[in-house]
Amino acid sequence: MKKGYIIVRVSIHNNELFQKYPHLSTEVMKKYGGKYIIRGGKTDVLEGEWPVDRTTVVEFESFESAKKCYESVEYSEAMKIRQNSTKSDLILIEGF
Q1: Each residue's pLDDT tens digit, 15-40
Q2: Could you give the CA distance from residue 12 to residue 84 in angstroms, rounded to a whole number?
Q3: Residue numbers of the domain that contains 40
Q4: Contact at 8 Å (CB) between 96 and 5?
Q5: φ, ψ for residue 4 (rounded to 5)?
Q6: What is the pTM of this model?
Q7: Interatomic CA distance for residues 95 and 73, integer angstroms
């Protein structure tokens, strides 16, 4: 079965509010079987543009389980904080 990945790119505009997001999102991701592959860290843009402060990749057992996590009531609180403290892009993608 192919895995599911949530990929998030954020540019933080309210750091104080954003500080609440990592703890909340971590708990939800774990509950739905998510495993962090990338979470922030040093970047070096080698081609094109990557105008964000942080990139996160979370791996799930399936596309469906990743979507359940994103659509969950538990994640909705964390999502509001992320949306109110950052400019972000979030995708759900199927992969190996």
Answers
A1: 999 999 999 999 999 999 999 999 98
A2: 9
A3: 3-95
A4: no
A5: -115, 145
A6: 0.92
A7: 25
